[in-house]
Prior knowledge:
Layout: H1 2-6, H2 9-12, H3 18-42, H4 49-59, H5 62-77, H6 83-111, H7 127-130, H8 140-158, H9 162-175, H10 183-202
Amino acid sequence: xxxxxxxxxxxxxxxxxxxxxxxxxxxxxxxxxxxxxxxxxxxxxxxxxxxxxxxxxxxxxxxxxxxxxxxxxxxxxxxxxxxxxxxxxxxxxxxxxxxxxxxxxxxxxxxxxxxxxxxxxxxxxxxxxxxxxxxxxxxxxxxxxxxxxxxxxxxxxxxxxxxxxxxxxxxxxxxxxxxxxxxxxxxxxxxxxxxxxxxxxxxxx
Length: 205
């Protein structure tokens, strides 16, 4: 069972929107590109300016798009599913795999420290709980989970008007840099506005 959850195998069996999967696949390729670039840069490898420019161009939109997609489908799900089902589903889809893979990555980086460009130590396990930004690509999973939890709470219980919800997203975006030392908080705050934008787009879908 834990293997199924770790790899999200149940998702493969569901009916899916092909165009969304294609776009997500392209964005994931851009994410891999970005982290490969960071790895080369960290090791002092000279990178052509065109590679740097392409990385910066993709960096500006790829992660916001992920959150917009999530807001699009979370907003639609709230019309037909209970908040409890959505929360549990997001836990299995996002947080559970995050805990497993973050733990495994740190463990492997420590065990094979002589063969990787990471400098992980046993203290890095604490980053899983409060500073996922230090765990490279894994920060996205708790950020999406936390922002979705806040979104569901507000959408279901407070039912605030669209304009106020957008204003809240902007305020969270502006406050996020002040608590970068706790990226478990700042990450979801920075991208919450894009979740709200996705929800707005769901009304047009």
